[in-house]
Amino acid sequence: MSLEIIGMISTQHQSETHAPRGPVIDRDYTRRFAQAHESAGFDRVLVAQHSTGPDASQVIAYAASVTDKLQFLLAHRPGFIGPAFAARQLATLENFTGGRLAVHVISGGSDAEQRRDGDFLDHDSRYARTDEYLQVLRQTWTSDKPFNHEGALYRYEDAFSEIKPLQQPHIPIFFGGASEAALRVAGKHADAYALWGEPLAESGELIRRVRGEAARHGRKVRFSVSFRPIIADTEAKAWARADAILAETRRLRAASGAGQGTPLQSEGARRLLSAAERGDVVDERLWTAIARESGGRSNSTSLVGTPEQVAQALARYIDLGVGTLLIRGFDPLEDALDYGRELIPRLRELAAEREARGQDLHKEAA
């Protein structure tokens, strides 16, 4: 399989350097944003789920209606509806999009975020729920006859779904989380494990741990890594742009009264902040300043340089066994188009060189 490149869309123009403006759901912007990714050569786009924002599944339904080939990655939080019902909902959306859907399962890294939606389970209990939830979800997608289930949290009698995913054996499951509880669930259920943009050594160590957990269940897992590339026609201009992004991030946070971000509770956030403690720049061009400024929120580390330099830096993650790259910018729509012109073609070339050498980008590195 070839390199998979994922972007990210939202329904409103905003980022760390752009205060939200306009309606929360701007149909015209959403359409242009999705179509920009399709024209730029992205394979798929992530649609995030937040406790105060639009429903991601309906955003995808709209974006799919205004694109032809672009695929989607739906952020999905287990536990707010039952897994058998969720399986039917997701399979329905996947069928209407022509098989263009994958699911990114997020158990929750913030108690405050979860509680806004009425979820008061603690961290490890959320992952235990995810484990059982995914078991029922997958069984609902794949079972050719009604089944019973009796677990710690869910009980079903004659559960069944007439609607099956077009993709076989089921809708691909992406999964994130770096805690011990998360890694155990990833090993059992993930088709693709998603890392935030950590230094190479830490990324390689986490990949090895996930492979070990998957091996216990006789499984192999693909790997995805997320970055916020900052590119320009010279390295000096790219670093100058990074400085401007940091200054504007600080200005907007101060203006909103946020100040420096309170660190998130998640293990992934802790790992990003640990990398930031080593300095603003790690591994030559991994820039951690925004991760530090935001408290380790989301995929907030960058690779900075010319398109060729950033492509070469990303290729080092491919060499660790990564087959999917999630890239999004601080100027969301404009950067997506820029990546399509300058970065994605170079990444495709580098990935093709590796495949020509017999390296499978979606399995273990040779």
Describe the structure in your own words.
With 366 residues, the protein is of the alpha/beta class. The chain has a single domain (4-227, 306-356), classed as Luciferase-like domain (TIM Barrel, Alpha-Beta Barrel), CATH 3.20.20.30. The protein has twelve helices and 14 strands. The protein has helices at 27-40, 56-65, 83-96, 111-116, 123-142, 180-189, 200-215, 235-256, 267-276, 289-294, 307-318, 332-356; strands at 4-9, 44-47, 71-76, 101-105, 147-150, 155-159, 173-176, 192-196, 222-227, 230-231, 281-282, 286-287, 302-305, 324-327. Helix 1 (27-40) packs across helix 2 and helix 6 packs across helix 7. The longest helix has 25 residues, at 332-356. The mean pLDDT is 93. Keywords: Flavoprotein, FMN, Monooxygenase, Oxidoreductase. It holds the Pfam family Bac_luciferase.
